[in-house]
Amino acid sequence: MLLSQGRLRQTILALTLISILTCSLLLFRADIFEKLPVPKQFKSDGPPAPKPTPLYKPAPERRPDITDNFPRAAKANSSSSLPEIPPWNKPPQPHVPEKTPLFIGFTRNWRLLQQVVVSYVTAGWPPEDIYVVDNSGVMQSNQKGLLTLQNPFYLNYHRLTTLLEVNVLTTPTLLTFAQLQNFFTYTALEKEWEHYFWAHMDSPVVSDEEYEEEGQPYRSLYMRAVGVMRETMQPDYGLLAARWFAYDRLSLVRTQAFVDVGGWDTLIPFYMTDCDMHERLWMKNFTIEDAKAGLVYDVASGIDDLEMFYRRKPTSANREEPPSPALRPDGRNSPEYHELLRKLDEMQRAKNEDKAGRNTWQSAQQGGKGEPFYRDSAGFEQGISMTMNFGRDVFEAKWGRGPCDLRKAGLDENDAWRLVPGWEKEEAQKQAKKDREREMKEQRKKTENRKKEGR
């Protein structure tokens, strides 16, 4: 009993000591913390600072709204309400034996797209062979008529398919230039087209009504293009990849050639991807040859009334009046034809001399807010520009140099992604020489050491 009481007293004493020590430590820590400086983020020097408010860039200058540049089509109910295609340019009936599909890619600017489609139709291209590729990235919005004219990505699906009677293919999402080109090739493979044509949407065409071949009847731009294609289909023609009409503003492509080099490099989205593709074709001994079929222009604006392409005199100064069915197209090589050429020449010159750049047409429209897949026009333009710059960097990384003339620099397809950046520069060449000399010296030393060890 006594032992138990002694142990109890010891336990109580121990607990008391522990309590005293604990309290002392707590008081000591509290005293230290009182003397320590309070971190800045925990100080309260008054009311909390207001959160930063978003700072906005100045609003871009508002451009004038665009107007539709085919008033006659805007009032038409069917294709028969449109002007007559000049008889000398009408597509052959029946269709030529060859398949002659023509792709025209579209992302922005309805006026220019409508202009180039009308130009090909009036130059004799069969409408059923024309494939507008809606690459606006708005999915089915244009097909359902959900966008308005001021929207940069607006396309009048009904007018193209019902009035102009061309085809419209829609990409599932917005494609870059390189991806769009591969889409053309893929579609050609799916439809078993050995050849196809493709055209820029800012490059209207006109049949050359003054061109004559000795002993040959007049041929429209379309029939001359068919003639060029027939040349390339000869068994002994050689390794042809493409024929260019006014550079590649209109191109004839041999499908399998593009497949054989692996298609367009989609890591290079826009500028320099054409250089990469064409150089790789040449490296594989394919040829790209120039050809002529008619007049091909490069413009940044649209004619205000596309009826000019039908070579008709204005039906009336008052656009509310119905067209006169008795008014026939003017004759071939007429003053109206030359007025059309003069207008297109003027537009092409304006594009080349524009100090703001050649592609101002791409950002001509600024509307569409609140519509499906709306994108800020200026922001979209900036994003595309950044992507273009990225592509230039990729090209330079792929080939170790920026200029396009890869074969002239002594490169072939096996050099892609294997070259030191800036390998052509004098400093890089000197460094490479030093590295080789050092490696050779180290190799000789290793050889000598092995001989000594062998003894």
* C-alpha Rg (nearest Å): 36 Å
How many DSSP E strands? 9
* SS summary, helix count: 11
Strand order of the largest sheet: 3-2-1-4-7-6-8
Q: Mind summarizing the main beta sheet?
A: 7 strands, mixed
* Helix-strand category: alpha/beta
Portion in strands? 5-15%
State the share of residues found in helices, binned by percent.
25-40%
The H-and-E topology, N to C, reads as: HHEHEHEHEEHEEHHEEHHH
Low-pLDDT parts are 314-328
The quaternary organization reads as single chain
Mean pLDDT: 89
- Assign an overall shape: extended
Measured between the Cα atoms of the first and last residue, the distance is 93 Å
Keywords:
seven-stranded mixed beta sheet; extended; two-stranded antiparallel sheet; 9 strands; alpha/beta; 455 residues
Describe the structure in brief.
The protein has 455 residues and is an alpha/beta fold.
Would you mind describing this structure in some detail?
The chain has about 450 residues and is α/β, with parallel strands linked by helices. The chain has helices at about 1-35, 70-75, 110-120, 155-165, 175-190, 220-230, 255-260, 275-285, 335-355, 375-400, 425-455; strands at about 100-105, 130-135, 165-170, 195-200, 205, 240-245, 250-255, 285-290, 295. The protein is built from eleven helices and nine strands. Helix 4 links the parallel strand 2 and strand 3. The protein starts with a helix and ends with a helix.
